[in-house]
């Protein structure tokens, strides 16, 4: 009988049903698991489910009964992949569950920033509109989306889905070639040209050694002073301090950030410390999380476990 342990069930909202696998097993789940508790909870596990709980080499080497790692997310940064490959421990992740949710969140941020919705809301709550006694009170610039250029870094499922919505809104879409590439592939535009031409830049690439701080001071200065930067990918793609300085200096027009270098972000984070900037919109890593997307994730998670049990593993990392 399989022993299944879900280390961080609270990463999936309580209203989302996580069905049990259709084979004999014992199931244990914990809302969250502190590093000191991981071994005790996993010592008899044959299958582990983790979203963000770290599974490093030291821990995995102490779990000889473990047969399978099921990641309740797409990102696998929390698992020592090299150790798993060397020791032939299979890992599956979930994919394609947020191809509506993330792009819609990106587009929502784009509209909110371009039309200064937060600024106008604040004007009303602070009584500015009422004081001016004007029928229509234009205290912030309002830009159009149609006819503008959307630059996208990352041409995977999320990048493509965001591009499709952008095109349906009448935007010109550019996919950026890799930073520093010596040649440009068909369907792509050189990285620096995309930065210079776009009115909205949306990030959808993975976080790796080569994409760490992909957008920093140099890149921000290449962008239009009216351009928007939206990151619903990974926090480490953007140098957060450089972004704050660019917003304050007027190097770019605004930014929407759903992800942070450390999550949850605390008061030491430059974005959190400057959350009152009128051209900065922050959300707590929820772009992926529409109810339908999370239910798809939960269903695929169990599908992955059942496929492994049948000897037909899918979505292997």
Secondary structure elements and pairings:
Blueprint: E1 2-6, E2 25-29, H1 38-42, E3 47-50, H2 57-60, E4 68-71, H3 81-86, E5 91-92, H4 101-114, H5 117-125, H6 128-132, E6 149-153, H7 157-168, E7 172-175, H8 191-197, E8 200-203, H9 217-222, E9 228-231, H10 240-249, E10 254-257, H11 270-273, E11 280-282, H12 291-309
Parallel strand pairs: 1-2, 1-3, 3-4, 4-5, 6-7, 6-8, 8-9, 9-10, 10-11
What's a concise summary of this model?
The protein is of the alpha/beta class. It is built from 12 helices and 11 strands.
Which characteristics define this entry?
single chain, 317 residues, alpha/beta, 6-stranded parallel beta sheet, 5-stranded parallel beta sheet, 12 helices, 14% strand
Explained architecture:
This protein is α/β, with parallel strands linked by helices and 317 residues long. The chain contains twelve helices and eleven strands. The strands form two sheets. Strands 7-6-8-9-10-11 form a six-stranded parallel sheet, with helices on both faces. A five-stranded parallel sheet has the order 2-1-3-4-5, with helices on one face. Helix 4 (101-114) crosses helix 7 (157-168). The chain starts with a strand and ends in an 8-residue tail after the last helix.
Radius of gyration: 22 Å
- Average pLDDT: 95
Give helix % range. Answer: 25-40%
Give a count of the beta strands, DSSP E runs of length 2 or more: 11
The strands making up the biggest β-sheet line up spatially as 7-6-8-9-10-11
Which of globular, elongated, flat, extended, rod-shaped describes the shape? Answer: elongated
Low-confidence stretches: none
| Alpha-beta classification | alpha/beta
Q: Characterize the largest beta sheet: strand count, sense, and whether it forms a barrel.
A: 6 strands, parallel
């Amino acid at each position: 009988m399989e022993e299944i342990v879900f280390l961080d069930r609270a990463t999936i909202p309580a209203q989302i049903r996580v069905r049990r696998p259709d084979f004999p097993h014992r199931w244990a789940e914990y809302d969250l698991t502190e590093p000191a508790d991981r071994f005790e909870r996993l010592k008899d596990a044959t299958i582990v489910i983790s979203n963000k709980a770290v599974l490093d080499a030291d821990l995995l080497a102490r779990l000889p009964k473990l047969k399978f790692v099921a990641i309740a997310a797409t990102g696998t940064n929390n698992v020592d992949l090299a150790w798993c490959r060397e020791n032939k421990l299979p890992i599956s992740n979930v994919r394609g569950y947020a191809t509506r949710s993330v792009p819609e969140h990106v587009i929502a941020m784009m509209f909110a920033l371009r039309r200064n919705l937060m600024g106008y809301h604040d004007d009303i709550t602070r009584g500015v509109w009422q004081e001016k006694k004007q029928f229509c009170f234009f205290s912030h610039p309002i830009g159009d989306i149609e006819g503008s250029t959307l630059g996208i870094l990352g041409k995977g499922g999320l990048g493509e889905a965001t591009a499709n919505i952008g095109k349906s809104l009448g935007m010109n879409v550019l996919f950026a070639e890799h930073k520093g590439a010596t040649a440009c592939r068909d369907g792509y535009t050189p990285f620096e040209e995309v930065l210079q031409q776009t009115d909205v830049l949306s990030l959808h690439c993975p976080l790796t050694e080569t994409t760490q701080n992909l957008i920093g001071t140099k890149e921000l200065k290449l962008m239009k002073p009216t351009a928007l930067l939206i990151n619903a990918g990974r926090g480490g793609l953007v140098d957060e301090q450089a972004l704050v300085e660019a917003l304050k200096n007027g190097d770019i027009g605004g930014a929407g950030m759903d992800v942070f270098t450390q999550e949850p972000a605390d008061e030491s984070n430059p974005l959190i410390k400057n959350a009152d900037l009128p051209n900065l919109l922050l959300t707590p890593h929820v772009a992926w999380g529409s109810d339908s997307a999370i239910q798809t994730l939960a269903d695929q998670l169990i599908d992955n476990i059942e496929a492994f049990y049948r000897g037909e593993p899918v979505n292997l990392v």
